[in-house]
Amino acid sequence: MLAAMSTDYYTRLEQRRGPQPSVQMLAALARALRLTPDERDYLHRVCGHSAPDRTMFSDYLPPALLRVLDRLHDTPAFVVSAIDEVLVQNDASRALIGDATGRTGMERSGIYRWFAHPDTERARYPERDHERQGRTLAASLRAALGAWGPASRAAEIEKALRALSPEFVGYWEDHEVRRRFEDHKVLVHPELGEIEVDCQALITPDESCALIVLTAAPGSEAAGKLDLLRVLGTQSVGSA
User: Fold this and answer.
1) How far is CA 180 from the centre of its chain?
2) Are 154 and 68 within one domain?
């Protein structure tokens, strides 16, 4: 379940009856099993792949970061990659922003979805914040491309968005570069409306991913909404 694979597929892997697992599947296994970098590299090699380049961004998550996430039960928290892929999230985060871990390909990237599917992806943000959010995402992609290089997922997304979104092209040609997270933002829940949250980011030393924790001021209306979401989970607020 943690690696998003069926028990039948995992059993066949253990019994050496299955196909060679992909690099993406091995990354998911490494996260689920909380492997160290050396153990992760060994897993790739015995499965017929080269060990991931540790100087490049990857889907690997340090076990210590996951242990921190495990202890965050009462506030939305999730881990994102340098290209805004939600790699793992807690239940409070799913209740607030939906399940963001089941996508594949470029659709995993929030940067790609923001420009490729504006009608649906931007519903979580007030319209007044759309330009700022778009500029921030384009600047984050440029930072990832500079660190990851022209043969990377960041480069694939940049190429695809150039063909899809004139808005992205406009931001991209401003050559803004930054890898940071807003200290304060407003999110829109489909039933509870706007929720003001403070955003704290714990970035790994190699800057490949960050643990994002969203909180609200104690006693505020936003705190009450987060408490309600925590109790109800992902079920409909109206039906509850």
Assistant:
1) 14
2) yes
